[in-house]
Each structure stands twice: as C-alpha cells, then as structure tokens.
Write a structure and sequence with these properties.
By secondary structure, this protein is mainly beta. It has one helix at 2-15, and strands spanning 21-22, 24-25, 31-40, 46-50, 52-53, 56-57, 59-65, 69-78, 83-92, 96-97, 101-102, 108-119, 128-136. The chain has a single domain, classed as Jelly Rolls, CATH 2.60.120. The radius of gyration is 15 Å and the shape is globular.
Length: 142
C-alpha cells in the first residue's frame, strides 16, 4: 500500500512541475529536508510549491544559487485549511540562504507554499535557482 501511495505522490509531483519542481518527502527523520525547487526569472514574481508526502514541518529556509533574489513574502497553506502569511522583506544573496522562518503552531502538515520575490538585477541576467527546505522536529513523538 505504501508503494502505491508513493507512486501516486510521484505522479502528482510530476504533473505539478509546470508550477515548480516538487520533491516527494518520504522521511520523517529530524532535521532539514528539501521540499522543492524552482528557477525564478525576471518575468514572474510569484511561485507555488506543493508539498507531497511526509509534509509536517516546523520551519522553512530558502536556499538561493546563481543569482540573488529579494524574498518579499510567503503564504503557507496547511492541510487543516488555514494559512499563514509571512512578511520576509530582505534580499538573499547567491549562493546563500534566508533566515530560518518559523511556522505558527510548531510542526504542521503543509499543503503548499506560495512565495513572492523580486529577481535582483545582475550583470549576466542570470536566473536564480531557489530551493525550499523544511525542518522536521518530531516534537509530537512519544
């Protein structure tokens, strides 16, 4: 049964690649896990990443390669139906990463993350590669 669920999750993630590349998270080990990635450019200023699999996280970071971005804000949609808007408002150098962004309520199941950014001008008009990482704390384990 787990194998079928994993295959379905991979199929769903493949369909969603038009939005951003979604990584199926299969581990519940404590620590940082890559949730997804996308290449951001000068024409768009908003991207969406769906979270599939073991989707409980307590915090997020954004890792940036190739070109800097100005991370304006993000909105985290939870499986419970509520969402959280987070104003970020600072540039992230490349290579570099954002500060740790804590989520309300500790470790929670995330449905998707929508983030608003501005690609900062650079000499080569290079697009930025952005990875989203989530922190598993397993605080509700016995």
């Amino acid at each position: 049964m787990k194998k079928i669920i994993c295959i379905l999750a991979i199929a769903i993630a493949t369909v969603n690649t038009a939005v951003a590349q979604t990584k199926v998270v299969i581990s519940d080990k404590k620590g940082w896990h890559k949730i997804g990635q996308t290449t951001v450019d000068f024409s768009k200023d908003r991207d969406e990443v769906k979270v599939v699999g073991a989707d409980r996280f307590a915090a997020l970071i954004f890792k940036v390669e190739d070109a800097p971005i100005d991370l304006v804000e993000l909105e985290v949609y939870y499986e419970s139906g509520d969402n959280q808007k987070i104003k970020v408002g600072y540039p992230v150098k490349a290579p570099g990463q954002s500060k740790e962004i804590d989520l309300n309520g500790g470790e929670r199941s995330i449905k998707k993350i929508v983030f608003v950014y501005k690609t900062l001008p650079n000499r080569k008009d290079v697009k930025a590669n952005v990875e989203i990482w989530g922190l598993k704390t397993n605080t509700d384990e016995k």
